Structures are given as structure tokens and as C-alpha cells.
Amino acid sequence: MKALLLAGGRGSRLFPLTVAVNKHLLPVHDKPMLYYPLSTAMLGGARDIGIVASPEHLPAFQQLLGDGTQLGVCFSYIPQEAPRGIADAIMTADAFLAGERCILALGDTLFWGHLDFLRDALSRHAGASVFAYPVRDPSRYGVVELDDAGHPIWLDEKPASPRSSLAIPGLYVLDGRAVSFARSLKPSTRGELEITDLLREYLRRGELHVSPLGRGMAWLDMGTPDGLLDASQFVSALQARQGLSIGCIEEVAVRMGFVTHASMRAHMATQPSGPYRSYVEALLDG
Predict the structure, then answer these.
(1) Please, which residues have CB within 8 angstroms of residue 155's CB and are 6 or more apart in sequence?
(2) pTM here?
(3) For domain 2-127+168-247, which architecture applies?
(4) Span 124-147, pLDDT tens digits
């Protein structure tokens, strides 16, 4: 399974934190932001993972993650010359995707809870699957409206007058036609190729699947100062209470069977001492 993680953009909502640092490398409690969507993609079974970012930021991601051997995955680093939208990033990754379906995740999204909704989406081999999450201010997001039978009938990007309170979180499952559909799009008034316009093509063909997320699922947008703080506090509180880590990619690699306990133990022995290493080593010894 392939996954595409989008870590580009200017991070303007987090200015001045992002003047010198890519926002997806900012700390969310005890981990870089990108660890959270990365762990979600890995839990979905993705082992061939492309990371899209601006050319000047890619070396930092390579320093952080390497080639993926330590996790039993393979990372590809894909430059996006300018932040021209999510659909543009999909086209940028054409060679990596090679006509295959993928999990597409925005680098500033955090999901917590059972991922049955993602596994159900991955069981479909055609079309596009998105998810719907009720929010107080849907005008900040892509919004989808469902009919009484739960089928999508309308969607829009940051609408001034939303017809629904259901936001589309930054997690998608797209089939191998996504790149060709993206090539037919025209820039929006924001000058970007919008993911919403890409999804409309699937909707037009009757191939857009929408799964509402229940109350037991948490989705956090980490792209604003308040969102960054909320996510850090959320992770801190849950980890302190449960003693379980959220977004620990080493734990996911072991539990998914991507690597053996022995190989992960050898890798962690090369890492700095501290609470994070201690957590993974305790997991391996348990």
C-alpha cells in the first residue's frame, strides 16, 4: 500500500513559527507533527511512503526519517516547487504513485481512535473515499453534504454559507486515476488546484464514498497556533493517563509486523536516552 504525506505549504497560519522551520517538523508534545499522520498511514498498511515538501525543506525530513529501513518502510522524498494546492501535489507525485491507489494524508492532521473507517475505505479498489466529521465552524474546511441515505450530494472548499456541518478531514483514499483527474483541473480563485475539485470529479461519476466519523473518533487540525496547542495538550493528557504513546512510529512498525523486535531494539540502542527511547524499549521488553 502506498501513502502520500503532504508536508509542503508556507505554514502562514503559524507565522512566525514557520519562518525558518517547516510546520510539519514543529513539536506536538513529544513528537514532530508529521509523526501523527505518518503513524495513521502505517496503521493503514502503507509501507511505500512518499513525502511531498518544498525542495529547501526536504533535507530536514530526510535527516529525521532516513530511508525508512529502521521502520520496515521505504520513504521517497518528492519536491514540490511551489505550494499550488493538494491536487498539484498529487500530480507532482505522479512517478511515485505510478498509477496505483494510495492513502493521501495532510501533514497537519491527527486522528485518534479505532481506524476501522480507514480499513473499510481501503477495502474498496475503485473510486475515492473521504470522511466526514462534524465541526462548529465548517467554513474553515472542505465541507460535504449527505442525503438521507448517507450519499454525498454536494461539497465545497471553505464555503461562506456551508450547507452542512460536516468537514472533510485531511485523509483520503484515492484510486489510480487521481493524477489524471488532477491534470484536468483549473486553479481556483486562490490560485491553487483544489482537492475539493478533484473529489467533485469522483462525485460526478458516482464514485465518491463518504464515511461519517463517530463520536468515539477524534480529529485535530494542527495547522493553527490554537490547534497546535490543543493537539499537544490532547496527546499529553492521554499519554499521561494511559501510559500509551500516540503517534509513535516505532511502536506502529513493531505492532504491524514491519520489523522484528530484535531489529527495533538494535535501532533504539543507537538513539539518545530519554523518555521516548525508554517507552519503545519497554514495549519491546513487555
Answers:
(1) 142, 143, 144, 145, 168, 196, 199, 200, 203
(2) 0.96
(3) Alpha-Beta Complex (3.90)
(4) 989 999 999 999 999 999 999 999
